[in-house]
Amino acid sequence: MEVHWSDMLQTQPIVSKMVMNSINKGRISHAYLFHGDKGTGKFTLAQLLAMSIFCQERTGVEPCYQCRDCRRIQSGNHPDLHVIYPDGASIKKEQILHLQKEFTYTGLESNKKVYIIDQADKMTDNASNRLLKFLEEPSQQTTAILLTENSQAILPTIRSRCQMLSFTPLQSKRLEEKLQEEGLSLANARLLTAMTNNLSAALEKSKDTWFAQSRKIVVQLIEMLQQNPNEVPIFVHTQWMPHFKERVQLQEGLDLLLLWFRDIVHYHLDESSELVFVQHREKLETGSMQWSLAQVTDHLQEIMHAKRKLEQNVHPQLVMEQLTLQIQR
After folding, report:
1. Mean pLDDT, to the nearest integer, of 216-220?
2. Alpha carbon distance 130, 146 (integer Å)
């Protein structure tokens, strides 16, 4: 999906204006640190900045999107734009050394070079120290863009050499509207906004049959908790666990469960405009009659506790069995 500066201005007005201003004045910083929650557009803005730096046919700040440089950046194979991702759990010293080696060569298209380090907080100590040396010898034509959700985990000496730009969480209403513009129903747009807070991730999820099935299974579990509590252990064993096989998938199932119980809170408080599962109002009403506001609040705490247990490697089936028993109490 082609993203323009006008799109970024709508989602991240402050950081976009600051970067656009730098481009206009020809004062692009040699190092940026973009920090903010997942899905706030850090990588998109980094890529757009790279296009504005390399594009030969630029109009003001806006790249042309058609030239060879723009097309190569969009397809991820521009020879003078390097992107580093964690290799497994971390970004290693060797990756930074390789990057430095690449930068000793003259630019293939021009003398400009840009590198983006995604999840920069995952750098090992050795990688961080290596990068620090690299940042201390800035070349006039080099731009570093570090992306992170956790700027405090980055060496203060690295932070001090970067222009730090803080990305604000996306406004959910705006994202919901954008998803509806892309053809999603209100119900789907609202649920995916609550799950991702990220346009591209939400659109990807909307086409995911596994996720569609996940929603059905969560609603079935709720119905069973309300109507046939004796059958819940069998349902967990035969339906829930085979679907949510990986821990990360089970976390997503629990996130959906959290949203459901939050909806019951909204129902109790007469905040129907805040409902996420808008197509299940009757079931939510039934839930609000079955569980008091105090009970629902307890259930939300129990689900959060179950999510923490999963992170601590407690056996997933045991986590689910304990959770459903607590909700039935």
Report:
1. 96
2. 14
